[in-house]
Amino acid sequence: MEHSSRVALKQSTELLHVSLIDMPSEDRANFIEDLRTTPEWINAEYFRTLLQKCNNDLTIEVQAVRVKYALPKGENFASVIYRAQVKYRRLGEPVTTCSFILKGVSESPLARQKLGEYDVHGKEMDVYQLVIPELMRLMKSAGELSELYPKALCVDRSHEMIILNDVLQKGFVMVDRTMGLDAAHLKMSLKSMAKLHASSMKLVEMFPTIFDRYTTGMMNRKTNAFHMFFQSTYDALTDEIYTWNPEWHYYANKLRKLRPHYLEQGMTVFDNDSENDLRVFVHGDFWVNNLMFKYDTNGLPIDVLILDFQYCCYGSPAIDLCYFFFTSSSDEIRQNGFDQYMQYYYHQLSNYVKKFNCSLRFPTLHQF
């Protein structure tokens, strides 16, 4: 069992990450060269047209554009991300240099095939073009002035590209995912999650069909593209626990008994087939790597932005809540703080539901 599951894990992981080592030398050289080459259409003329349109200013002229990959190779399986530094000027004004993020479909043919079954990039383009502007208008009308999301300058359907303001310019940075979030980061993140969920509840009241398109979460019944990956990681975890001290074997045995039902139970979480349940716009991949924080001079977090809506869906808030808590909190908090932070999220959600004047039925803490 141990050997077979580890083999399956290796095979499924190779579906998610291109292995340069296994490539023939010629293919490997071509692959590396592709990574060094950015699209020719991302140039001064492209940004001149874009900036003139977005700023309603035909006097804008772009003097220089420098484009590079925003992330190291292998850091983002689902997308290709460029950073463009653009030097431009308006009539009668000094030269300005701004940085933009361009997020597009993965360059890997295998990734494009697998992710295409989830329509991850199409969904995310819709979110930035259609959903986030409405969420931001709603928040602003309720006196919530925090940004919460990076601003999309443009959703370029012809190039399948989302052009975003580079939030590094505003002091937002990512944190070390291996450390786990402490109480201050965790509470700030849960508060932002509650804002997202509560504002989406109000948005459904205003536009009842706005989330009809978001039916495929990370686990769903429309595609099994990642089922092999999910199952093999589950098996690898079970085998790993069997190598621990004997007192842990009780849990490994329970996992092994659950194995035939694991995928079905996972899909049931995403089924979203009861109108009586609390339902929100679920981020779907809410964890530390999809958050960026801003800090004060003492190094304390003062703001957070939510990134990456490729696995979003309409469903239970528990999907985001549990996924985030168990993937992103520090070991001490994860082991001892579940009830405390679930209640913290609930009260934040309840407060924002009232602030956004939602009329939908809201559960008590006991029901939640």
Automatic annotation (TrEMBL):
InterPro entries to which the protein is assigned, alphabetical: CHK_kinase-like, EcKL, Kinase-like_dom_sf
CHK kinase-like domain location: 162-355
Pfam families, per database record: EcKL
Protein name, as recorded: CHK kinase-like domain-containing protein
Taxonomic source organism: Aedes aegypti
